Amino acid sequence: MKPDAIYSVVFPIREDDRGKIVAVNLSTKTRKIFAGMILGSGGRQDLADTSIHDCGCREFREELTRRYETYELEEVGVIVSHEPNGVSQIHYFLARGGEGPIRATKDKGMVKPTWYPPADIPYEKMPVHFPMLLDKFLKGLRVKGTIKIDPKRNILFDAKIRTSKRIQAPA
């Protein structure tokens, strides 16, 4: 089934010298779906985006940082989300490396970008399906699957998720 919309979600990360993830940057969404919840930056793929990777870069730049080109985006998941209003395909990325601070850009719907160690992530403040996905990404796994969700009521009805090991890009 062809999705009605395609989205990207980007989670900036910090790693130690051995490549272990020591922090993830999450922000509070201020408008549209999931307003008031904590998540990564992202949004719908535009016609001007030449790929879903370009969409992730654009959304990251628009919402969180002007120095996005110093980050390396790695796609770590694809989820097909069946919702009351249609079907969405969501591509998840980790953004590693990078220079300069991460700050919310004015009027783009994200505020309070905060670095969280994995043990301190406020999963209870995230959309209902994010904790199971982010936990797997932070453990070095790729994710593919489908979910059935009502995002307006933040209810997850069903999830079929497959994981595989991620191949770490050389530093």
Helix proportion? 10-25%
Mean pLDDT: 86
Characterize the main sheet. 9 strands, mixed
Number of strands: 9
Q: Helix segment count?
A: 2
Q: Give me the strand/helix succession.
A: EEEEHEEEHEE
Intertermini distance: 38 Å
Shape summary: globular
Which ranges are low-confidence, i.e. pLDDT below 50, for 5 or more consecutive residues?
none
What's the Cα radius of gyration?
A: 15 Å
Q: In what range is the share of β-strand residues?
A: over 45%
- Could you say which structural class the secondary elements and strand pairing correspond to? mainly beta
Description:
By secondary structure, the chain is mainly β. The chain contains 2 helices and 9 strands. It has helices at 52-63, 130-138, and strands spanning 5-15, 21-29, 38-39, 41-44, 71-83, 86-97, 110-116, 141-150, 155-165. Strands 1, 2, 3, 4, 5, 6, 7, 8 and 9 form a 9-stranded mixed β-sheet that branches. The longest helix has 12 residues, at 52-63. It is globular. The model has no long low-confidence stretch (mean pLDDT 86).
